[in-house]
Amino acid sequence: MMTYRSNPFDKQDYSKFAFKKSELLEILRAIDSSFSFDSPTCNNQKSEQLSSYSNSQYDYKFYLFKKPLLTFHEAACIMTGYDPQYVDQCQNDTNFRQNFSDYLGAYDYINACIDAQMLSYDNDSNRLYSNEFQQFLANQNIEIKGFNEKEYIDYLAQKSLKEQKEFNSQIPSAQTIEAEIFSTDNRVLELEKSINKLKVELQEKDDEIEQLKNDIQKKNRSVFEISPEQIYTTPALEAVKAVVNHWWKDFDPDSNQPQSIPQQKHIKTWIAENHPEMDSDYIQTAIDKICRHPTAKNGGNRKFNF
Known about the structure:
Strand content: under 5%
Mean pLDDT: 80
Radius of gyration: 58 Å
Number of domains: 3
Strand order of the largest sheet: 3-5-4
Structural class: mainly alpha
Helix content: 55-70%
Order of helices and strands: EEHHHEHHHHEEHHHHEHHE
């Protein structure tokens, strides 16, 4: 509840009424928590502040943008769209850091770029060169209308030209393409020659394999096979031929695998049973010796060649 002092001499004159400042401040802060008697012009909404300044006849940009040198404070104001004088007036506002966080961020960004030697300044006046600052903003892809539009357009043009050159550099020239095609054609011809050579070699190998097959077949053919032209024979020759076909046709003297070798007594018994006209022990023994391979002398034993 608010208290006030009235004019004891004229109670109808309300202009004479007075309220305590602390009570008024409490009521006003209930409406706007950022309200302060110290800086009333800086406690309105940010959009209202900018609107009131834009409606003013004074255009702070007219002279600010023409300055050859800029303080860091002025440069930060250009980046954030503030009138430097307006920011100065609000420096003591209790909510200054909150209301002008973008300005403070721009100011810190400028200092960081100077420390990184990305942005130069005049050592004597401790100010930035306006033309360099304009180009710096353009190079950072920042456009401030009325301040660095020309530099920004030039930057975009140079960037586009650079990208185009880089793109063009990646495209091979016609001569390079022709050379690559010629080289590819030569490589194809070389591969075709290699393929044809391999085909010839493969055919030769196939012929060799076929010849080896024939040789093996001839080798496995009974040495006593009689051609149709050969009509002469005897009972003893027939017995020899029969022994070879029956007992030795699968025997391979060059094999490293163990083989069963027939014993002489078994062969002689077989001759007596199948060729009774060869009933002489002497003839039977002779036929066995004729048919038996020199490496198979010990009948009945398994042969191992290492």
